[in-house]
Amino acid sequence: MTEKIEDLMTREEIPYGVIVNIRTDERIYLGDREKIKPDSLIKMCEDDMVSLYQSMEGQILPQYWGQGNVKMLISIPQEDMMVLFFYYKRNDTHEEHHKGKMIDEEVKNLLQIG
C-alpha cells in the first residue's frame, strides 16, 4: 500500500506525507519531512490529528491549507483515516484544485479496504 502512495508522491512531486489512523493514532510517514521548509504547517497539524479530522466533517474534500508556498492537501479516503500531503505550490488555484481532486481519487482507490 505505502509503495503505491510513494509512487504517487514521486509522480506528483509531493515531498512529504502522513497516513493517519484516527482510531489508534498510528501514523505512517512517507517521503522526507526535511524537504518542507518552513515546517510550521506540519507542526500545527501533528499535535492533534483527531481535531483536524473532526474539523473536516461536512467540508468539501479534499481540503487545501497553505502557509506561504507550502501547501497541504487533506484527503479522507475512508472512515477514521486521513492522508496529509505537504508540497510546494506549483500552479494557479484552479489547477491546484483540479490536480488535488485527481490525487484524492487515486488515494481513495489505493487505500480501499477490499
Automatic annotation (TrEMBL):
Q: What highest taxon heads this organism's lineage?
A: Bacteria
Protein name in UniProt: Uncharacterized protein
Organism the protein comes from: Selenomonas ruminantium
